[in-house]
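Problem statement: downstream parser choked on a complex file, so we are re-checking the raw output for the pyridoxal-5'-phosphate run. The parser issue turned out to be on our end (a line-ending mismatch), but while we're here, posting the original submission so the record is complete.
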Amino acid sequence: MKYVSTGGKATPVSFREALMQGQAPDGGLYFPEKIPHFGESFFTKILNVDFRGIAFRVAKPYVGDDIPEPVLESLIREALDFEIPLKKIEKNIHVLELFHGPTMAFKDVGARFMAACMGWFNRNEDREVTILVATSGDTGSAVANGFLGVEGTRVIVLYPKGKVSEFQEKQFTTLGHNITALEIDGTFDDCQQLVKQAFRDEELVKKLNLSSANSINIGRLLPQSFYYYHGWAQLQDADARPMVCVPSGNFGNLTAGLMAHRSGLPVTGFVAATNINRVVPDYLETGVFTPRPSVQTLSNAMDVGNPSNLARIRFMYNLDLEKIRKEIRGFSADDVQTKNTIADVYRRTGYLLDPHSAIGYLGLKQNLPENTAGIFIATAHPAKFAGVIREATGREPEIPTRAVRFLKGKKDTIPLGKKWEEFREFLFAIR
Ligand SMILES: *Cc1c(COP(=O)(O)O)cnc(C)c1O
């Protein structure tokens, strides 16, 4: 399997190279040259296969010869060692809970798979890399935890000062070891801009062996497609063609779902659900893509004004907007709707939604054709957003024991301005 750049000017590379490089040298994002096709028998079989088994079967053609099959299988068993249950919460509406990993957000899936693969490549080749990651909340914690203690890797997390919840912040600023947190005086877009600029700086890339772990890395994107098959399989109906709603920020999660669909996964369509940072719903409506500065909302992991994976989506559909519109509907909700949905669903069903998942629920509810199964993705555990949940429902979400240890840790960060020169100087000073 070769990976090509959405920029169209880079040489195709193998899975290993695409994962190690992060971004393609022409500034584009790597994408499989051809999505493998899984036939009908694959889908009837996976009705009886567990998540890790499905993940291995899907991963094989994408990884090719870069990782021997028995190694790949054991990397998957170790990295994806938590459950991803599908639960029915009301008629035709199911939730795929992706928040049972160590940091209680769906990014654990991508980050842990990627860290496992990169760790194996590094051990095999005896090299050291520096991973730069910009986060609006959950990426930083998932990546930092995924890579914590992984040999041959140093992780630098950039996050916007005062714009992530205390809970999220604790999950990546208390770890120490090979993890460094930079508290940037700016927005998430500023952080992402700094990371992008670092990758354009050849001297830096060479010196630090820079790699990325943002959702632009194919090593994170690919495993995110695994759970779409697993969600479908849990409906236990070979004829099901569910509508799938994905709460989206950088649109990596949605892209992974589209890849699964392209490979043969039967679905009716996708809803791309966002908060008021609605550049993608606007693009679907008008055909014009206009990046804008992001606006802060309750669903802060989706506060993205220039979603990078749209480049992959457009590439996948050959820039054909009509084709895109046939498979993806846009949806956006504001903070008031988000809170009302949390309150309403709790009152009617007893189910607690975090603000991101609430937008997923509402997007599905408003776009679900009659007599069709619907699946929305729950991207974070409600306990990560206890304040909002409390206000909306009067209830205190229970914090899973695995998260309590973060809250006890001490925050350790390096404060930095948003100027490129300052960041570059910092990077040159390490090691
Ligand atoms: C990152 C994140 C999203 C957005 O996912 P993308 O792949 O960037 O679209 C949604 N919800 C939560 C909780 C997240 O952490």
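For whoever reads this later: Residues 105, 107, 138, 215, 247-253, 301-302, 356, 379-380 surround pyridoxal-5'-phosphate (CB under 6 Å).
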